[in-house]
Write a structure and sequence with these properties.
The protein contains 1 helix and 8 strands; from the N terminus they run ββββαββββ. It is mainly β. β5 and β6 form a beta hairpin. The chain has one helix spanning about 80-90; strands at about 15-20, 20-25, 30-40, 55-65, 95-100, 105-120, 125-135, 140.
Length: about 140
C-alpha cells in the first residue's frame, strides 16, 4: 500500500540497480533530487516589454551523503569504494530514488557518478558525499509488488 500523509525522509533512499536488484547506497544519512528545465528566451520587439520563453530540455541530478565505511563491511549495499570505481571508470549506472514501498513514486534513469568526496575529521565520523548526473530520460513510475 502506498505511503500516505507527510513522508518521513528516512524512508527515501538512492539505489543502484545491480542486475535487476535495487541495492541501497550504504550508510546514507541524506539524499537529494533536483530537476531543471531550460527556458529559452523568445522575447522580441512585439513582446510589449515582458520577457517571453519556451520550454527547452531538462536534466536531473541526485546526491547522497553518508557515513564512510570500508568496502568489506557494508554487506550487499553499495560502498564508497564501488561508487569510486564507477566514477573513475565512467560507468553508466541505473540509479533509482524511492521509498521502495509498493505504490510509492519511483524515479529512475541512467546516470554517472560525477563527484565523490570523503571527509575525515579528527575525533569524528568520516563522511562522504556523492553527486549523480542523470543522462537521458528520467522515468517516473511507482513501486510494484
Amino acid at each position: 500500500m502506498a505511503s500516505t500523509g507527510i513522508t518521513n525522509g528516512t524512508l527515501i533512499a538512492i539505489y543502484k540497480d545491480v542486475s535487476g536488484t535495487l541495492t541501497k547506497i550504504a550508510n546514507a544519512s541524506s539524499n537529494d533530487f533536483s530537476i531543471t528545465k531550460d527556458m529559452i528566451e523568445t522575447t522580441n520587439k512585439d513582446s510589449a516589454g515582458a520577457k517571453e520563453y519556451i520550454a527547452g530540455e531538462y536534466g536531473y541530478t541526485m546526491s547522497v551523503e553518508g557515513m564512510f565505511e570500508e568496502d568489506g563491511s557494508v554487506g550487499s549495499a553499495i560502498s564508497w569504494k564501488e561508487i569510486l570505481t564507477d566514477l573513475i571508470a565512467g560507468t553508466s549506472v541505473t540509479i533509482v530514488m524511492t521509498s521502495n514501498v509498493s505504490g510509492d513514486i519511483k524515479l529512475s534513469g541512467s546516470a554517472f557518478f560525477s563527484d565523490l568526496n570523503l571527509t575525515a575529521p579528527r575525533n569524528d565520523v568520516a563522511t562522504f558525499t556523492a553527486s549523480i548526473q542523470g543522462t537521458g530520460a528520467l522515468t517516473v513510475s511507482t513501486i510494484t509488488p
